[in-house]
């Protein structure tokens, strides 16, 4: 993963709180901010992804005993 340098403008109290948490977790300010952004972006992508819903309908009693004759009439009847 290639890292790039950027400037971030934060309120002073946010920066101090982040530095305190980074110190408590024995990590860096940079790593903590990167992890927070990655988590935020992952949640945003998950919210954006549409959930597929398959609607089903009850069609009644299964008709598993049908034959071809149930669908098609005898061709000799219609031949004139």
* Unreliable residue stretches: none
Rg of Cα set: 32 Å
Beta-strand residue percentage = under 5%
Mind summarizing the main beta sheet?
none
Helical residues, percent: 40-55%
Q: Give the CA-CA distance, first to last residue.
A: 78 Å
Structural class: mainly alpha
What pattern of helices and strands is seen along the backbone? HHHH
Oligomer: single chain
How many β-strand stretches?
A: 0
The rough form would be described as rod-shaped
Provide the residue-averaged pLDDT.
87
Number of helices: 4
What's the structural blueprint in terms of helices and strands?
Blueprint (H helix, E strand, L loop, with lengths): L11 H13 L4 H20 L19 H4 L3 H4 L2
Helix pairs in contact: 1-2
Structure notes:
The structure is a single chain. The termini are far apart. This protein has 4 helices and no strands. Helix 1 (12-24) crosses helix 2. By secondary structure, it is mainly alpha-helical. The chain has a domain at 17-49. The protein is rod-shaped. The mean pLDDT is 87. The chain has helices at 12-24, 29-48, 68-71, 75-78.
How do you describe this structure in short?
The chain has 80 residues and is an all-alpha fold. The protein is built from four helices and no strands. It is rod-shaped.
